[in-house]
Amino acid sequence: MVSFNELFPQVNEKATIDKVKHFFKDELPKAQRYSHRDVGGMQSPAITDMPMGRGVKNQVEETIAKRIYAGQVVDRCREAIECCDAISQKILWSIYVKENTVTAAQLESGYGETRFRYYKNRACLQFADAFMIEDLHEFIK
After folding, report:
1. Distance CA 51, CA 43 (A)
2. CA angle 86, 79, 134 (to 5 degrees)
3. 100 CB-near residues (< 8 Å, 6+ apart)
């Protein structure tokens, strides 16, 4: 029988929070640009009759696969945020989707600085639990 601690090792909360913040700051914007999708909503497909450059088939397939993967990252990000509790959803949407400043998000929430920091960190940990494309957890060894 597998123990709970073997299935869910102890999480290094600070390192996990830092990894989630890095994901939102650097990786998600790149995935949104690459997939032509936004976490805040779906974009209609662009259809064009402009001629496309001819390339090697493998490069085209690789590019398509990367764009599909980037689209999955964006979609799973939206789903992960929606799996978090209401306070965490509001904070994540405000800071990382609507791109408000932390101060603006804090004022919007009505929490003091210390309490808001607690909820923001908790939101990052909940997001790491819910995000299914990549494991954003850092574990204590």
Report:
1. 22
2. 115
3. 94, 108
